[in-house]
Amino acid sequence: MKKILIVDDEPNIVMSLEYTFKKNNFEVFIARDGQEALDILKKQLPDIIILDVMMPMVDGYTTLEQIKQEPRLENCKVIFLSAKNKETDIKKGLSLGANLYITKPFSLKKLVEQTQELLN
C-alpha cells in the first residue's frame, strides 16, 4: 500500500483528499501545516506528499526546502496543490523541487491519476 501525506489547512480539502486516496488504496497521513508535516515525516516515510503553499506556521515552500534537506526523503514525490496560481508561484514551487504544481480549484479524479503516474 502506497503512503501519502496530505498537508493543507483547509478542512474540506483535507476531507475530500483523504476519502479519495483511501478509496484508491493509499495509507493517508494528515498535517494541517508545514510544521506538523515535518513532525510526521520524522516517523513516516510517505511515497508522495500533497502540499499546500499558504498555511499557518510554516508555509509549503519552506516545508519543501526542509524536505529536500533530508536524505531519507529524497525519493519522496511532492505535489504542490495551491490557490497561488501566478506563473512566479508555480516556477518557485517547481524550482524548489516539487514534481508537480496543481492549482486550485482542481479535479480530484485528475489529481489521483497524476499522483499514480508519478508513482509508476
TrEMBL record:
Every Response regulatory domain range: 3-119
Species lineage: Bacteria, Pseudomonadati, Bacteroidota, Flavobacteriia, Flavobacteriales
Xref: CDD domains: REC_OmpR (cd17574)
Keyword Phosphoprotein: yes
Keywords for the protein's UniProt record, in alphabetical order: Phosphoprotein
Modified residues (4-aspartylphosphate): 52
Source organism per UniProt: Flavobacterium plantiphilum
Name of the featured protein: Response regulator
